[in-house]
Write a structure and sequence with these properties.
The structure holds two protein chains of two kinds. Chain A is of the alpha/beta class. Chain A is about 30% helix and about 20% strand. Chain A contains five helices and eight strands. The two termini of chain A are about 25 Å apart. The model of chain A has no long low-confidence stretch (mean pLDDT about 95). Chain B is elongated, with a radius of gyration of 30 Å. Chain B folds into three domains: about 130 residues, Rossmann fold (3-Layer(aba) Sandwich), CATH 3.40.50; about 170 residues, P-loop containing nucleotide triphosphate hydrolases (Rossmann fold, 3-Layer(aba) Sandwich); about 130 residues, Helicase, Ruva Protein, domain 3 (Orthogonal Bundle). Helices cover about 50% and strands about 15% of the residues of chain B. In chain B, a hairpin with a 6-residue loop joins strand 11 and strand 12. The N terminus of chain B is likely disordered. In chain B, strands 2-1-3-4-5 form a five-stranded parallel beta sheet, with helices on both faces. Chain B has a five-stranded parallel beta sheet with strand order 7-10-13-6-14. In chain B, helix 2 packs parallel to helix 3, helix 5 packs across helix 7 and helix 17 packs across helix 18. The chains are: A alpha/beta, B alpha/beta.
């Protein structure tokens, strides 16, 4: 049976990935397992000039190692991600593919010089995880203001949307549209 | 009528770095765009023929042709293309140059995703507004034109009623009538009162286009379809999507095109000249002809099946000479029109001049009337148009054109015309008319002619 495999990428710090398990299961109605053991080493994706990690290379690494997994693979990292032409990304996914990666780096209040807010940060990470996994199910960006598939390039945008999909995106994902 | 399906916004990425092309393509695809990319100027120009693209992202620094030069070439192909330049920090100066030459904006690499997203959505919004603006302007002028059906005669009222009735449907209409009776005006009135009014009405003057060009005019063509076809071009059928196609002088179409036309009208599908792709278009057809098309069907020069396909609902516009009560209204309408256009204080037509207009036979119909009023307005002095302001040939033609009038009536008009020509010089008029001055004075008294 297909499932969602959540893989830590690099050092996780205080981040608890198990908290993602239940809500992801609720949204996608698939079993969710958390990879136990040593995290995926992101060093090969590190760009010394930009001091960031190339998310496309991390996706490649995830596929190299977990490409045979039946279902979807979500890499989660504390490191700051980029794609070469953009200054940063919150995450990257293969559209209608297997793998996705999200970064919690810019989801943290501390990054913006504010006091940490674990509950809010957990919500953001969950929303971005659902969003990137949504792409692997073939969903593109949605214009519904509260749909999780709405494009967000700033944390404020993430805070405005829901964890779940709008009816249209859900039926597209479930193939009932 | 079915509204055309919304099309995905399209975007062309031109950059020599594969990683940039790949990541932007992926990023915009996730945003729901139709994206394609090109690695250099040559490929970009080739892709232009597959456009139009809503937004083009151009790297300013590429080997071979630079982004700046490419922008110029792109604008030669599509004047309205929205170009966003991608630059490195070092080339901000050339980005400014690009803006001067018509780029929408520029971004520096690496691009802030939030900024890029807003920029592209703003560019799309602006393009949509511009396209809409052009379309609305055309529609407004179409609507104004549609209001110009002037007349109160039972014949023209019948035409207006028929036009209004058929406008509500999607039925094919054939408008019949002599040259200059206002067939295109009636077609525009039908379109303006139909559910398709917010889409364009696209006229094709079949008689004015050479047979060999008509095919590409109607169906469009692909790049290289024939010598001189440098770019892909949309045909009239495609342009009329959602709206109305007006085929003027449809009776002049040659045999080969009649077959093509029939096929396209029946299936609402066609291919561009030199192309294989079947293109669908949702249009309504209104056609017009001044030819005896039934005779053409009989002698075999017009296909019978096409005739029946076009002649579903027929509206006949009577010639002006058969609706003389409309002549004063039309003459007054054109007088007001040209008084405004020429900024002249002439708002009237003298009763004698109006008599001449009403009695004339108008072989050129309303178009001729409009031209004669325009000419008279150039010559006339305030406050009214006088018989002398009407063309000389008009005066001489009218004698034969009068409706079974008496010899006296003909003589009266002729003398009056002569007096205007000579500016009421009695001796000169008598000399030209070859009568003596006393006889002329008697005739002036008899007909009650007065110097204006």
């Amino acid at each position: 049976m297909p499932s969602i495999l959540v893989v830590p990428v690099g050092a996780m710090g205080d981040l608890d990935l198990t908290a993602l398990s239940e809500p992801l299961n609720e949204v996608f109605r698939l079993p969710v397992s958390i990879h136990i053991g040593s995290p995926l080493d992101p060093q090969a994706a590190f760009d010394t000039f930009r001091n960031q990690y190339n998310s496309t290379l991390i996706l490649t690494r995830l596929l190299d190692r977990y490409g045979q997994h039946d279902g979807k693979v979500l890499g989660v990292t504390m490191n700051d991600l980029f794609v070469p032409v953009l200054t940063y990304v919150f995450g990257e996914a293969q559209l209608s593919g297997t793998a996705a990666v999200v970064s919690a780096h810019r989801l943290m209040e501390e990054f913006y010089g504010l006091t940490p807010d674990p509950a809010m940060e957990h919500d953001r990470l969950l929303k971005e995880s659902v969003h990137e996994l949504g792409h692997t199910f073939g969903l593109v960006h949605c214009h519904e203001p509260e749909c999780v598939m709405r494009s967000s390039n700033a944390v404020e945008d993430i805070d405005l949307k829901d964890v779940g999909m709008c009816d249209r995106c859900r039926s597209l994902m479930e193939g009932t549209a | 009528m079915n509204a055309p399906a919304p099309k995905l916004p399209s975007l062309l990425v031109v950059d020599d770095e594969q990683i940039v092309r790949d990541s932007l393509t992926k990023w915009f695809r996730q945003d729901g765009y139709r994206v394609d990319c090109a690695e250099d100027a040559a490929q970009a120009l080739k892709k232009m023929t597959e456009g139009p693209w809503d937004v083009i992202l151009l790297d300013i620094k590429m080997p071979g042709m630079s982004g700046l030069e490419l922008q110029k070439r792109v604008h030669e192909i599509d004047r309205n293309a929205t170009v966003i330049m991608i630059t490195a920090f070092a080339s901000v100066e050339s980005a400014v140059q690009a803006l001067k030459e018509g780029a929408f904006d520029y971004v520096t690499k690496p691009i802030d995703p939030d900024h890029l997203s807003h920029l592209v959505s703003n560019a799309l919004k602006q393009k949509k507004l511009m396209d809409e603006n052009v379309q609305l302007r055309e529609q407004i002028s179409d609507l104004f034109k549609a209001n110009e059906i002037v007349g109160e005669s039972p014949q023209i009222l019948k035409v207006i009623e028929l036009a209004k009735t058929v406008a509500q449907t999607d039925t094919t209409v054939m408008i019949r009538g002599e040259s200059g009776t206002g067939k295109e005006l009636v077609a525009r009135a039908i379109h303006a009162n139909s559910a398709r009014r917010y889409f364009p009405i696209v006229p094709v003057h079949c008689g004015a286009v050479a047979e060999s060009l008509l095919e590409s005019e109607l169906f469009g063509h692909e790049k290289g379809a024939f010598t001189g076809a440098q770019h892909r071009r949309k045909g009239r059928f495609e342009m009329a999507d959602g709206g109305t196609l007006f085929l003027d002088e449809v009776g002049t179409i040659g045999q080969k095109m009649q077959v093509e036309l029939l096929r396209a009208l029946e299936s609402k599908q066609f291919s561009r000249v030199g192309g294989n792709e079947l293109i669908g278009s949702d249009f309504r057809v209104i056609c017009a002809t001044n030819r005896d098309i039934e005779a053409a069907v009989k002698d075999g020069s017009f296909r019978e099946d096409l005739y029946y396909r076009l002649n579903v609902f027929s509206i006949f516009i009577p010639p002006l000479r058969e609706r003389r009560p409309d002549i004063p209204l039309l003459a007054q309408f054109f007088t007001n029109k040209y008084a405004t256009v020429m900024n002249k204080a002439i708002r009237e037509i003298s009763p004698t001049a109006m008599d001449l207009l009403v009695q004339y036979d108008w072989p050129g119909n309303v178009r001729e009337l409009e031209n004669i009023i325009e000419r008279a307005m150039v010559l006339a002095k305030a406050p009214a148009i006088q018989p002398g302001d009407l063309p000389f040939q008009f005066g001489s033609k009218k004698a034969s054109a009068l409706r079974g009038d008496t010899l006296d009536a003909v003589e009266r008009v002729h003398i009056e015309n002569m007096l205007h020509r000579t500016n009421w010089n009695i001796s000169r008029s008598a000399e030209i008319l070859d009568i003596d001055r006393v006889t002329l004075y008697n005739k002036i008294a008899k007909y009650g002619l007065k110097k204006p």
